[in-house]
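Appendix C reproduces, verbatim, an entry submitted by the partner laboratory led by Prof. M.T., so that reviewers can inspect both the input and the predicted structure.
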Amino acid sequence: MNWETRVTQLLNIKYPIIQGGLAYLAYSELAAAVSNAGGLGQITAMSLSSKEALREEIRKVRKLTDKPFGVNYAIGQHGRPFEHMLDVAIEEDVPVVTMTGGNPAPILNRLEGTNIKKLVLVAAKRQAEKAEQLGADAVMVVGQEGGGHLGRDDIGTMVLVPQVVDAVSIPVIASGGIADGKGLMAALSLGAEGIEMGTRFIATEECVHAHPSYKQALLEGNEADTVIIKRSIGAPARAIRNVWTDTILQIENEGQGYEGLKDYISGMANKRYIYEGNKNEGFAWAGQAMGRIKDIPTVQELITRMIREAEDVRTRWSR
């Protein structure tokens, strides 16, 4: 089967499969594995402590693969300055930069005139249209099934993706609820030219920073075992439901605002779960695709299986 799309052409990759930014988890081992398997792996820039740490991680990826990879910049509501970290990506001439959260204009403007490909994560048609106007090379469209931060309108991937495809001329990459070859083919049938997966790549051998209990929770849980938190402060995000997220929702219901929530939704609380496996003292992001996760393969095994599943779908269609 020919897997060439505008996304594979743009990014110079074999398969139209992109690994999500994955705060505190997307580092060299995972990024290189995804790229070596034919997709586009990514490093999460803003989870690193300094310019030097990001530069080192980029160079580690290049030792592990000669394939294209990306650097993701999460520029959220309460994020720290990112400009100095973006300088590193430019200095190191990384192939791809992706942006999630916040206003992408400063990054897109800074990258203008470079050879770096620019992808923007959006959660609404109007955001996709704006990203195209600002100079994005492609948009990644996340439906409300996704893990981590989402749009405010609760629109599912099945509806949102074709809406965006009809609204922009640049390539569209589908995200949210996708974990296998069936999801890949569904996205392509909606008009997308690639997919982004986050949750599914956590449950792989090369996601070495994720604690085994986090991966086990993804295996044991189903699509109903996630919950949206942070809606009350305008930053809805999907996480695995546990005692900690129940407390977050209680604080939100009481109207305590960001000041009441900040210790519960902090990076430290996130890391207590995903790094230390302390499920009662923190939270972990996950999308509804966790209901499709049944094992913890290598990245190569996962992508090979996805392509085989997708080709089986294509064979059924041809009949």
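The first strand starts at residue 17 and ends at 19. Additional entries are available on request from the coordinating office.
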